Amino acid sequence: MDKKALQRKRMWQYFIDAAVDIIEEDGLEALTIRKVADLAGYTSSTAYNYFDDLSHMKFFAALKFTKPYIDDIPNYIHKQESNLKQWLGLWECFLKHSFQDPHIYYMVFIEDLGGTAKDLFKKYYAMYPEELVDVPGELKNILQEESFSKRSADFLSSSVSEGYLIEGDLEDLTEITHMIYVGALVHYLNHRRSWTKDEAISYVYSEVKNVVMRYVAPDKREAFQ
C-alpha cells in the first residue's frame, strides 16, 4: 500500500473509531457527521471526503458491532452435521446477536443506504481483514455478500448436492425466510409485538425451520428433524 492509500485508510479509521465511540456512549441514533468529525478532530467537510453520506458512516460503524457475531459463528458450525443443519446453526447464531443489538443489525441488513451495499461490505473488510481471520474459509466470501437471501442460497448450495433440497427452490426458500426475519425485527424494534428478546428469537427460528421443512426432500425429512 502506497503512502497516500495508507494515509487515507488511517483517516477513514479515525472517523470510524470516533463513530463507534459515539454509538457506545449515546446509541446509533445519536450519530451525526458533525459529532464524528468533532470527536476525530477534523471538520465535517473532511469527513465527507471519506464517506458519501451519514448512512454510509453509520453502516461502517455498525459493522464494527457485528464482530461478536462473526467470532461466534464457529461455535455453531459442526462439520459432522448436514449442510442444512449447519444453516440452521447459522440462523441460531445470527438471531442471538441480531436481537441483542437490533438497531445495529437493522442498519447493516435492512436500512436504506441509497443503493447497493456490496461495495461497502468489501471496503469494510478490506480495511479490517483481521475480523475474518477466524471465520471458516467457506464463509468468508458469503459474509461479504450484501444480499441476505444470497448469503443463504450460497451456503445452502451443498444441501442440493446432499439431496436435501432442489436447486430451483433455493430462491423461494431464502427469500421467504429472509422476509420472516425482516418482519419480526421491524415489529420488535417498533414494539408492535409484546415479545421479549428470547420470544422474538424463538418465533423467527421456529418459523424458519417450519418453512425449510416444506422444501426438504421427503426421504430426507426424518434425518433432518
TrEMBL record:
One annotated GO molecular function: DNA binding
Entry keyword annotation includes DNA-binding: yes
The keyword DNA-binding is assigned to this record: yes
Annotated DNA-binding residue span(s): 32-51
InterPro entries assigned to the protein according to its UniProt record, in alphabetical order: Homeodomain-like_sf, HTH_TetR
HTH tetR-type domain boundaries: 9-69
Pfam families associated with the record: TetR_N (PF00440)
Keywords attached to this entry: DNA-binding
Domain of life: Bacteria
Protein name: DNA-binding transcriptional regulator, AcrR family
